Amino acid sequence: MHIYAFGSICRGEIHPNSDVDLLVIGGGDVAQYDPDIYSIYTYLRIQELWGEGNPFAWHLSLESRLLFSSDDQDFLRSLGKPAPYSCCARDCEKFLSLFRHARASLTDSCASRVFDLSTIFLSIRNIATCFSLGVVKSPNFSRSSALLLEKNAVPLSVVGYQVLERARVLCTRGYGPKITDDEIDAALRELDAVYDWMSELVERAKRT
User: What is the CATH number of the domain that holds 149?
Assistant: First the structure.
């Protein structure tokens, strides 16, 4: 069995909203671990992700630290680099579709506005991460990845980005300041530009 930390704690990006991402890799002995606390994978599945060049494999390859090893070996390091990431266009299209559906829900109904904002944040962050890995070739797995793409950065104000990020924290962790109707309306006004940005990333990914 192997246990790793990954994510913001390994990047040195800890702040009050951060959690500690933990990965357990094992065989039949992983059932004892709480899936609400750990990401749980078998050795075979991790090897498959490596062979696919999956973004999560690249994330672990670049930003994980071994905490425990039952055989005194670093399993992830033994795998070497993941295969090249070849599904960037497909993944970017998937996150554009996610954005489109969440935006439509946000404008059509008031029933789940914070959830929809959270989904929009997820789609923006993930499309930026996929683009940074597949097109820019300088992967960024930070929660602020969309703001850190330099000339390719999302055309979203820092305040707007913070509102979306707060929505994500509210939905995934259940705490944080309430998002006001005025903040939601302000975020909505920025989404046309965000959609155009995401569409351009998809087209560039297709040409890569």
Answer: 1.20.120
User: Is 109 found in the same domain as 73?
Assistant: no
Indicate the pairing of strand 21-26 with strand 2-6.
antiparallel
**One domain for residues 19 and 104:** no
Domain count, the chain: 2
pLDDT tens digits, 108-165: 877 789 999 999 999 999 999 999 999 999 999 998 999 999 999 999 998 999 999 9
d(CA 174, CA 169): 7
Amino acid making up residue 101: H
CB 100 within 8 A of CB 46: no
Handedness of CA 41, 43, 45, 47 (dihedral sign): positive
Sequence-distant (≥ 6) Cβ neighbours of residue 104 within 8 angstroms: none
**Residue 72 within any structural domain of the chain:** yes
Q: State which amino acid sits at residue 172.
A: T
pLDDT value at 10 more than 90 = no
pTM here is 0.89
